[in-house]
Amino acid sequence: MSKTQPLSASAERAAKLLPVLRESQADIVNLLASLSPTDLALPTACPGWSVRDQIGHLLDMTETLVRGLQEAANGQTEGVFEPARMAAATQESAINRAALLPLPQLKRQFEEASGQLLHLLEERDPQSWDDPIPHPYLGTCPAIQFAGFALVDWFIHPYDIRTALEQHPTPRTDQAALLVVGFINMFPKRLNLNRSRNMRGRFRFIIEKPNNPDQEANRLDVVLAKNAVTIEPNVGDDVAVDLTFKGKAGDVILSLLGRRGISKIVQPGPTNDTWLARWVNLWISL
Prior knowledge:
The chain has helices at 9-34, 51-73, 83-98, 103-122, 143-164, 173-184, 187-190, 193-196, 249-256, 272-279; strands at 132-135, 139-142, 201-209, 212-225, 228-233, 243-247. By secondary structure, the chain is α+β, with helices and mostly antiparallel strands. It is globular.
């Protein structure tokens, strides 16, 4: 009799991500159904992006993730690593994707693309979440990151749309808790080598438990050395750091995504004046 393989850390993370993705997709469909055609022209927190453009980005990036998973299923695993191109290219693609499409068509196409993506993710073999998937800007990524990419987009763009509608949204605790760990683990792919040469630094993220800020849900160090970044979990206070960021998961992820100032989560420290000036320029915007 064969023994059942234990689930990998990625498979365990996927088991938490998938139901939240399913709920997030339903929330977006309801949000799109609530919009009027005049809402599409409203400006959002992203400079130069309207509500229509935000929907275009949701649709375009969801379709991009579907293509990557389909390409991997057909044997292609090598992506292109050009993160510096991603922000501008996806903005242009989002604007083009949604231009002139009526609201009902935008809603229908998102439902179709997101439903296809959820199907591909939910039907994966639990042992395959570390398999390589090609991404058009971030090279080759494990399958679990594709689920994470979906959650980033399905979290922040509805947040931006609701903010544009003056609905004063607050991050969902389950979304934020999953997102903040995944986003911090993306720092190695976002390092701006033109700004980081010969630098060494250690930056600590402390994520508070939702109902008790005195207890930690996660502690992750972002370590910069030899023109590369690694992530080290649960490093003790006896190891000195250059910057410390601390807060609830929702506050941290909104700061990392540029929707709130970093000052809300940075903690006092002797090297803040030196490193805060460098921090933003170390990372490529995605």
